[in-house]
Amino acid sequence: MANNYVYILDGKAYVNLTNECSNACTFCIRNTGDGVRGTPLWLDKKPTADDVFAAFSRVKDELKSDEIVFCGFGEPTDALEVLKECAARFKSAGYRLRLNTNGLGSADNGRDIAKELNVFDTVSVSLNQCDADKYAAVTRSKYGKAAFSHVLGFAAAVKAAGINVVFTVVDTIDGRDIERCEDIAKKTGIPLRVRNYVADNYGDN
Ligand code: SF4
Q1: What is the CATH number of the domain that holds 37?
Q2: How far apart (Å, rounded) are the C-alpha atoms in residues 99 and 181?
Q3: Does ligand 1 come within 6 angstroms of the Cβ of 26?
Q4: In ligand 1, which atom is closest to the CA atom of 102?
Q5: Among 72, 81, 119, 150, which residue is least crowded by beta carbons within 10 Å?
Q6: What's the pLDDT at 196?
Q7: For residue range 76-106, what is the model confidence (pLDDT) as tens digits?
């Protein structure tokens, strides 16, 4: 199996650290495919930071953006130490950094990890739905209905750590649910981005 730790989409580099994830979202592209736009993203081995940089050097010439995105085929914070090492190395090389996360990283790691993400320019948290019941139904999280409060707590902690944080939802959910997500965004002071499912869902939260 080819382990594609770094892949390029529209001139931007995406880093694929792990296939682990505490959710099993009904809409995840992992349910229906092996990767993104012809790039297989299932891994048979988690990378070291050196593996990631070796992969990055092979695709670097295709870059048209200075932003590096850590995202799926899995949850990047489930490979926290490698995530932090890679992020620090990319940052010192002058790149902007975005983390796309399901927001369950603190629950998964058993501690509040928000401050450990302070090298990121943006942390994008998948809100997915507007309440605990609907979140649990759509994500089939191993945390069940407790998952939603984990996500809200994580996002608040990232904001409190002084990191730019945004919520995302996919535009396939009901319009009234999007309005309720917008209410959450207003209450928390965390902006909400409504993502286009077809164009923008890389299974990356
Ligand atoms: S969409 Fe993201 S959070 Fe949901 S199962 Fe897929 S990788 Fe996990």
Answers
A1: 3.20.20.70
A2: 20
A3: no
A4: 3
A5: 81
A6: 83
A7: 999 999 999 999 999 999 999 999 999 999 9
